[in-house]
## 1
Amino acid sequence: MHTAAYVETLDREGALLAAATEAAGCDAEVPACPGWRVRDLLRHTGRVHRWATAFVADGHTGPRPGVRPPDLDGAPLVAWFREGHGRLVETLAGAAPDVRCWHFLPAPSPLDFWARRQAHETTVHRLDAESAAGGGYTGIGVDFAVDGIDELLCGFHARQKSAVRTAESRTLRVRATDAPDAVWTVRLSPQPPVAERNDAGDADCELSGPAAELYPALWNRRPFPEVTGDTSLAALWRERSAVT
């Protein structure tokens, strides 16, 4: 996907998140985030949006803490979220392609990183808000879902922070059944997982299903569509894969 496509998705997903918040109410519980209510979800996402905006807008070259969200609730909180989301979209859409700033996963450019990361960040939390509202989920495009799976497996869980580890070498396969070549082989060991975009060799466990179902499942927002082989590896993913 290109940066412009990520920004377009971010724009849409932020609007959907705000609408789901209004439908659920700020006091509604968020099933996928124990202990959180929708107000906590919106404060978190609004804080992340402003944090990301500052890197691109101000060209910060090292990590910086986010600002503390204001003590708002209800309609003022939704308005605060919309304002920060809109500023992020405008900043990413108007930034120079060669803007230099800090980023924390490999990417073709810092701008591409931030557009991609914020599009997926906002989509996952939009799913959270919709689950709190108790209605159906807005669909996710196949290409975007595949991209999000790739970011999670090959980006986040390649870091030393990943807790998805096994005492002995095991192999997990992740397969999107509705997208050509959307297959990952994830090699587990006492070290961080090593994921490759291929279908090489035997696997101890396979997680499979349509990309738009597999994507939120890997973010622990829904059950896995299908698990074959050693189900303990699916359980390990559920227990250890939270991104912090």
## 2
Amino acid sequence: MLDPNFQFVLIGIILLSATASLVGTYNFFQKQALVGETIAHAMLPGVVIAFMISGVKNPWVLLLGAGISGWLSVLFIEWIKRETRIKADAAMAISLTFFFGIGVLLMVRLQQMEVGNQSGIDHYLFGKAAAMTREDGRMFLITALTVLSIMLAHHRHIKLVCFNRDYAQSLGVPVKKIDIYLSFMTILVIATGIKAAGIILMAALVIAPAATASFWTNKYGLFLFIAVAVGAVGGISGVTASYFISGMPTGPWIIVFLFMFSLISMLFAPRKGYIPRLMRRAAARKKIRVENLLKSIYYEFYRQPNRSRVLRFSTWSATERELLPYLVREGLVERAGSQQGTLSHKGYSEGKRIYRLHCLWEIYLWRKMNISAESTHSDAEYIEHIITPEVEKMIMNDLGYCERFEPLAEIHEYLSKEDTHAHV
């Protein structure tokens, strides 16, 4: 049977992580990832001042102080952007260092004061989920319900503002009001969670799940679901690790797991991951090499009806011979001994297709772009590999060709006309 305190902390962290992930996703959509970091650090002086004034560690009092300090930092950033030429990222950096520096000075001053109840204030700096009380749990629940209520009530407007502010404004959406809602939710979530995750680490809890989700999807609904799920799983993993490994803090463990999820996504996500992208690039380079070789074979051996169509592999270059096992395996080349072979029907069709696209693009540049024949070949060497059937059809329609179009005949006709004009 699990410790009741563990269950209590686990539920609280799940609520906090999921809510922080949801709010952080909208900051991510607006390309304001540093907002969470700035607000979190700016809350330190508010927490210390609230304790100095009240003399108690009531979470609601400290939450109020943190919220006021965080809101002042947001207003300070807006003032800097409005009144100076400093950009948003620099303004946030200035606000972060200024407020955090004041907070550290106040922390040092608090330690020098003879205040018997000051123990535990440092939890807001580094976080200590194990020190959560039932009042903290109620605070997490109220925060989650508040954020969810605002999201549901203004979901459509928030979505419009995050993705296209100008369009939202043209539709009459109260953009400033939505900005206030988003800032309020961010401040509320961070102020609520700094005791559990810490001021220094809370920003990661806000933005890391959204960054992780960005590697897996571009669909809005699925993006939100993945971000919230990653935040919740990271919270569960961190609490479990700190429970079973004695003496290990919960907040840093949560951040470590979130970083691991982000790193795994960065490396292995199917569409945007680093390793799949490297594999796709390698496959694309190999495809281009194969297509260039098939086009060259078609041009040299198969375009002329009286030419021998036997391929002698001993005359191939080293890079071409490297492709031979692949060509045979894919059924593009048929061996007729160890040192010779022929193109299969599939290989012949592929070589003809690539050569045809090459010629089609050259003709398009001649006729539509008025580019000389001498300048089109190198460009066609690249474009031929990326012309899809849809693009090919569009080019054919634009040129007024039918499906029986023969590029060689067209090229010979065009070049003969050019020679005639040159002689005249």
